[in-house]
Amino acid sequence: MGLEFLDRLKNELKPDTEEALRVAQSIKSLLGLDLKLYGSVAKGTNLRGDYDLDMFYETNGDKHKGFEDILNAVKVRGLDYMIKYSEHPYVKVRYMGYNIDLVPISSTHRSAVDRTPLHYRYVISKLDDNKRDEVRLLKRFMKTLGLYGADNRVNGFSGYLCELLIIKYGDFLSVLESASKWKIPVRIELETKSEREFSDPMIVIDPTDANRNAGAAVSLSTLSRFIIYSKGFIKSPSEQYFHIGRENRSGEFGVLLSNPYELEDKSYGMLRRIGKAWRDYLEKNKIFIEYLHVLVRDKYAYIGGIPIMSKIQYAELTPGPSVDIFERLETGYLKDERFYIPRYFINDIDNLTEKFISDHNLRGFSVIKIGYDLPEFRDMLEVEYWREKMLLRI
Questions:
Q1: How many domains does the chain have?
Q2: CA angle, 208 as apex, 203 and 211 as ends, to 5°?
Q3: What is the pLDDT of residue 171?
Q4: How far apart are CA 33 and CA 27, in angstroms?
Q5: Whole-angstrom Cα distance, residue 87 to residue 149?
Q6: Any bridge partners for residue 253, and if so which?
Q7: Strands (E), 276-389
């Protein structure tokens, strides 16, 4: 297949942001706050249909005061709102059909969120309309394959990181061609050089701060998958990489849990630790799963995977008496100067999982049921199966 479909996709992904910009101005006037629009809508890199607004209220230092100003203004106007948390609390409102994040930032402190105005100004200075098209292609590719998002759900590529990659390499295809040749750890510098050493698998020096890694959120697993997907696309370009598919598989063994946390990001962070400990415990006992699935939806959570073998029999040898002290033995065999007694074991994923649950801290999650092909997260698992199948296209 040729690459003509990329031009069509560019047109399909191009947003119409006029209404979103009017809504941003409207809520700024309604709340009477000096709110600034800095997110992907403001930069013109959002995808069509994705018009969530990120608006920022800058103070001279006290972000708590900024948060209180936002919250009070929202309450006075009677808007529906939720308090959300990232590095610091912020307010999410629903207004004129749009989701709007109202985020306090500081002009003197410089957390990642506080650097948002600097990121905005840098990106705006580097992207023209053609490069914005390329950013949207990269974002759509990432989203389809489950690589987009710097939160604990994905541990992947942020919108800012996608923009930096296009600024660095020029276009979508060049990003993938370069990524297909990356060696981990990856280190990328734009015009800002840094002497600082980072231990992350993905290192992209933030051009607005040489001491910050803009790729710190990208996990080793997500980076590895991006490299493989890039190899696959370069070898055999296909529009499949831009449209989420489903794959029906059976044999998934999983644990359905109740989720005690309101914040999805916290749920995923805790659940990933549990899932990794469960997988490590299984592997220690000779049971291996193909991929670890960690999923959260509302009040429920799930860890699972398809076992390569769900039951395994094996033996271990226990050293017995040496020949110089040997008197009597009902079983065993002689090897060199010592008798050995075989001990036989049968491990299966069901019993091992039950033992893991009883012996480990589940961090507030409680087990509802365990078993094969549980239906509660089937729709999400079918997408994960498809993404795993796409890894093999290379």
A1: 3
A2: 50
A3: 98
A4: 9
A5: 15
A6: 305, 372
A7: 293-297, 300-305, 311-322, 333-335, 338-348, 366-372
Q: Name the residue range of residue 377's domain.
A: 253-313+344-393
Q: Are 352 and 281 in contact (CB under 8 A)?
A: yes
Determine if residue 17 is left, alpha or beta; phi over 0 gives left, psi from -120 to 50 gives alpha, anything else beta.
alpha
Write out the two tokens for 233.
């696309």
Residues 192 and 293 in one domain: no
Contact 119, 160 (CB under 8 A): yes
Q: Which two tokens stand for residue 69?
A: 């100003």
Residue that is last in its domain, among 242, 269, 301 = 242
Extract the residue ranges of the chain whose pLDDT is less than 70: 1, 109, 323-330
Q: Is residue 351 part of a domain?
A: yes
What residue type is 54 in one-letter code? D
Q: Each residue of 231-255: pLDDT tens digit?
A: 999 999 999 999 999 999 999 999 9
Distances (CA, A) of 220 to 69, 213, 260, 267: 40, 15, 28, 20
CA distances from residue 58 to 101, 103, 107 in whole angstroms, order as listed: 14, 8, 6
Q: What is the CATH number of the domain that holds 213?
A: 1.10.1410.30
pLDDT of residue 339: 81
Tell me what percent of the chain is helix, strand and coil, each rounded to the nearest 5.
40, 25, 35
Q: What is the pLDDT of residues 129-180, one digit of tens each?
A: 999 999 999 999 999 999 999 999 999 999 999 999 999 999 999 999 999 9
Which residue, among 358, 347, 348, has the nearest Cα to 253 in the 3D structure?
A: 348
Q: What is the CATH number of the domain that holds 259?
A: 3.30.70.590
**What does the block give as tokens for 134?**
């390329």
- Nearest Cα neighbor of 108 from 55, 63, 54 is 63
Closest CA to 307 of 351, 251, 359: 251
